[in-house]
UniProtKB/TrEMBL annotation:
Top-level taxon: Bacteria
CDD domains for the chain: GST_C_Beta (cd03188), GST_N_Beta (cd03057)
Chain ranges of the GST N-terminal domain: 1-80
GST C-terminal domain boundaries: 86-208
Organism ancestry: Bacteria, Pseudomonadati, Pseudomonadota, Alphaproteobacteria, Sneathiellales
Matches recorded under PANTHER family: GLUTATHIONE S-TRANSFERASE GSTA (PTHR44051:SF8), GLUTATHIONE S-TRANSFERASE-RELATED (PTHR44051)
Protein name in UniProt: Glutathione S-transferase family protein
Pfam families on file: GST_C (PF00043), GST_N (PF02798)
Family per record: Belongs to the GST superfamily.
Amino acid sequence: MLKLFYNAGSIALASHIALEETGVNYEGIRLNSAILEHTLPEYLAINPKGRVPSLVTEHGILTETPAILLYIAQRFGSDVFPPPADIFDLAQLQSFNSYLCSTAHVNHAHRMRGKRWVDESDSHAIKAMQAKVTRNMQECFALIEAEMFKGPWVMGEDYSIADIYLFSITQWMEGDSVDINDFPVMKAHRAAMLARPAVKYIVDKHAA
Ligand SMILES: N[C@@H](CCC(=O)N[C@@H](CS)C(=O)NCC(=O)O)C(=O)O
C-alpha cells in the first residue's frame, strides 16, 4: 500500500489531499514535529533530505511535491484530474507547480528556516530575511492573480493538482502576514477548495 509521510501545517498537505481526492488506498503517517521526527535516523532512511512529504510506492520512494502530485494524478487520478489535453498543457501545469516549489515555498521558508541560508547565530541576517517574507509572498500572489491563474481553477476549466498545490501555499498567508482580502482570487479559490469534501477532510485531519 502507498504510504505518505507528512507533518501538519506543511506542504505535505498537497500530496495528502491529492491521494484523498483519487480514492486510492493509502496510509498517512504523521510525523511528530515536537520531537523533530523528520530528522531522526528512521525517517532519514526513507528520505535523506529530512523533509516532508515522502511517498512510499511499490516502485520506490518519491520526494518533492511536484513529482508526487504528478505521480498521483497520472497514476490514480484521471477521473478527478482530467489529463492535460496535450504536452504543452502538461508543461504549463508543471511550470505553475515549479513556480510554487522553487519560488513561493522558498520565499515562505525564509520566515522559519533562515538558518538554511545563514548561520543561526547571525540574528541580524535571520531577521532581515524574515522581514522580507510578507512582501515576497504578496508579490507571488499578485503575480499568480494577474498572470497565472486562468479561472475558475488555476489551469482553467479543469480542476488539477495545481489547485491543490496553490491551496497548500495559501494556507500560510495568515502566518506570513499576508491579508487574503487583498487577493480576491486567492480568497475565492480557498473557499472553492474547502467546499470539496476530500479537501475539508484532510484539512481537518491536519488541524486535529
Ligand atoms: N521541495 C520540497 C520541500 C519540502 C519541505 O521543505 N518541507 C518542509 C515542510 S513545508 C520540511 O519538511 N521542513 C522540515 C525542515 O526544514 O526541517 C517539496 O516541495 O516537497
